[in-house]
Design goal:
The chain has eleven helices and no strands. The chain is mainly alpha-helical and about 170 residues long. The radius of gyration is 19 Å and the shape is elongated.
């Protein structure tokens, strides 16, 4: 009850409170107790995307992927532009060996949110995993143009170009 009081007091001004509590609960030995506590903490915050996302993350850490997906659908309904929720949902799909659905989800999100570079990077990587190299290259090039100083993106693009035998552009 003390924790609930603190969370309820801080929630209106500190949306990261839910993520911090989720992280703390993830370290507890009893997964069942952690989930039960988190459910109680977020109960008054059903329309709070940050609260729901933190719960989905906790469920994901505990391997409850199907349940986490349901909560992520709720996050998407509350905030359709929640980039981290879409990326996490796609990661869950990939862990469930549903790569085509992950690619579809990320591609649709990026189409609606062209400035969502975290989702775009996940999309590009998923396209590589799906062996859709031409599309992946276009996404990595878009990212490289948006962040020309980002060496990680340049490296990923270079590797993709090497992998597809495009040696001239890889340099």
């Amino acid at each position: 009850t003390v924790l609930m009081g603190v969370v309820n007091e801080l929630a209106p001004t500190d949306p990261k409170i839910f993520a911090r509590v989720s992280s703390m609960l993830a370290r507890e030995k009893s997964r069942t107790s952690s989930v039960t506590v988190m459910e109680a903490l977020i109960a008054p915050h059903q329309s709070n995307a940050a609260a729901q996302f933190a719960f989905a993350q906790l469920l994901g850490r505990f391997g409850e992927l199907q349940r986490a997906s349901v909560v992520l659908d709720k996050v998407n309904a509350i905030d359709p532009a929640h980039e981290r929720a879409v990326v996490f949902a796609a990661q869950i799909l990939q862990r469930q060996k549903k790569l085509d659905l992950a690619v579809q989800k990320l591609g649709a999100f990026v189409a609606l949110n062209p400035a969502a570079n975290i989702a775009r990077l996940s999309y590009a990587r998923a396209l590589v995993d799906a062996k859709r190299y031409v599309e992946a290259r276009a996404e990595f090039q878009h990212l490289a143009e948006a962040a020309p100083q980002d060496t990680d993106i340049a490296y990923a693009l270079g590797l993709l170009l090497l992998q597809t035998n495009d040696l001239d552009d890889a340099q």
